[in-house]
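User: Can you model how iron/sulfur cluster sits in this protein?
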Amino acid sequence: MTDASVLGAAKPAPVETEALTLMLGDRVLLDRATLRVERGQVLAITGGAGSGKTALLGALAGRLPAGVDMAGSARADGHLLIAQGGRLAPRRPLALQVAEVVGHHLGLDLRSSLRRMADGLDRMGVPAAARRFDLPPEQLPEQLRWACLFAMAVAVGPSVLLADAPAAGLDPTVRLRLLHRLADWARADGVALVLAGRPEDGLAGPADRVLALRRARLLPPIPARTEPLTPLEPPGTARLHARGVGMSYPLAPGPGGKARSLAVLHGINLDLRTGETLALLGETGSAKATLARSLLCLPPPTAGAVVWMGRDLTATATPPAAGDARGDDADRGGVRRARRDLQPLFPDPAASFDPAMTIGAQFALVLESLRPDIAADRRDHRIDEALEEAGLRPEAALRWPSALSVAEAAHAGLARAILSEPRVLVADEPASSLSAEERETFLDTLMAVRDRRRLSLVLATERYDEGLRDAHRGVVMLAGRVVESADAGTLRTAPLHPYSRAMLAAAHGERPALEGDAPSAFAQPAGCPLRRRCPLAREFCAQAAPTLEQVAPGHHVACHYWDTPADG
Ligand code: SF4
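Assistant: Here's the modeled complex, given as structure tokens:
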């Protein structure tokens, strides 16, 4: 594959490969890759696991693993490599690491190295108050660790920066903000910047060009699917309700043995209609997963009620106290019925299987427990049907969980969830551990199952656009509260809350307007929980927490200044 920018090029670019081919034994890691990156240009290379992007960066950096043979050419002049999984030494004070890395590259003393590092931190947007050169990185928040790593690269001042999976693991809003700052630095200082990551990492946003690696070959990127799979029919009557749902966890007693607790979910009200898909959206720490589990009473919420078909699940899921006149079996039928109707999909499906039993044996137990009306000799047939509907072959029933790939485990989790013929699936990041292509396949299968069975679906995810793509409605959560709810189309095109706008910007690879990380549940600011990060925050935001108000039919927002334009 020939990159068009090569044609007619006269001056050598700082990054160039020509028909670069990498082989590990008989295996092709990279097949005739030709590319060129100019000074001040940002190139994103996207691809799933094993697509060859790490091998490509390794060849550019002259750091190929032992046993890899190379043909063609690869060159990156004056480069610095941030390798995949590369990080600061966790226990060594930052100042010492700056002295070693910056001082070593530029021949500077500690004071001069720290001055350059401070400039790098400026360019990564780290406020002076957050700079702790005396601390080891393990004591810094993850966002700050990445900012320090990038700042150190900026301080060294390479001609070429190669970054493999940069800022991986950060929330999209935080990751995209940092990567845009890194791209700004590269353009301003004439650095050739190569970012490599997964297609869903949003690297296209800060980049000038994107190339996709698929099965070791460079291709133009495949556009993400943006339209719903099928036209969504209007949903029916609400059957699942959350009323004032809250969750608190006990803490160690305070002075004088005073009982203390930490509230992570606050007074949530929701209605889920028959056949409706509801996206629960929010960054890590927003408590969307806690809400999803509370809807299943796994565990029951500590405040409020979850009502399914008129029955208060929180009352039936809580074991009766000793001596309770209801007795042990007062509502056993109701609990079983709810367990059968409301099924979970977990974020780590492989871990949710018992490693000591085959998939089929575990499925048989589920049927025995939740569907005793199905005769024993019919169970195998039901298991085969569920596996096939979830995209697996019936033979998967004979396999052990450890023999399943991550993607197969996700599909097996879906098969288990539909065994009991549920009415509602509650999914907490069910595809978070899958590659981009596996996610697409899994979500397509999930939506096909939903449509075929007219299921209601609650989908908790930090992927704003992906969560809303196949949803009727969305709920945006921040610090355990709903800050915006609306139909999916409104949230995808014209959200009003600054937090929703930032999540939408990050989903499109744009620079989110929020500053800093989400505060932990232990350190929520007074007033609006977003106020330290919000571009629209004013004095009043510190004095009063905004409440959820209807701003249009079916559209609710919790922000004092929701009608202020995004640019302030
Ligand atoms: S209430 Fe204030 S701080 Fe909170 S989101 Fe609205 S403008 Fe921002």
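A couple of observations from the model: Residues 4-219 form a domain with the Rossmann fold fold (CATH 3.40.50.300). Residues 349 and 410 are 5 Å apart (CA to CA).
User: Helpful, thanks.
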